[in-house]
Amino acid sequence: xxxxxxxxxxxxxxxxxxxxxxxxxxxxxxxxxxxxxxxxxxxxxxxxxxxxxxxxxxxxxxxxxxxxxxxxxxxxxxxxxxxxxxxxxxxxxxxxxxxxxxxxxxxxxxxxxxxxxxxxxxxxxxxxxxxxxxxxxxxxxxxxxxxxxxxxxxxxxxxxxxxxxxxxxxxxxxxxxxxxx
Length: 181
Hints:
- This protein has helices at 2-5, 38-47, 71-83, 89-100, 104-116, 142-157, 162-180; strands at residues 12-15, 28-31, 52-55, 87-88, 120-123, 126-129.
- The chain contains seven helices and six strands, in the order αββαβαβααββαα.
- Helix content is 48%, strand content 12%.
- It is of the alpha/beta class.
- The relative contact order is 0.13.
């Protein structure tokens, strides 16, 4: 937060998106991170009605660089756990990432998706295959949808040109204002 203070007017308040509320706002607000979903962006824009908001869109690590897990990766991981029922993830996740050639972040996302879809169960760090899970698409899992939304927002807010960003924010703001009428 201190890194941006020198770029911001003295009467402005620098805050993180999650800390934003009507109660803690000055007339000039500087958002120093990136909303993770559209609902959070809408919250920011609802406060923008009576405030001046400046975005310094920043993320320590872009999740879009990892991308969404594909069907092949998921199948490979599912087959691994079918063969290694009771796998100790706590003790062996680094070796597993190397073996599967996948990042830790991607592995844990896939495991969360599998858990949400009841493909596996996780008990004290041990992974167990559910023998007859219902056939479902990985895109049905809330974690998958959340990551997909977050990647879309990163592309719109951080990876877009200045003109594209301005157009996107203006359209979102106008849509929100129209919905309130």
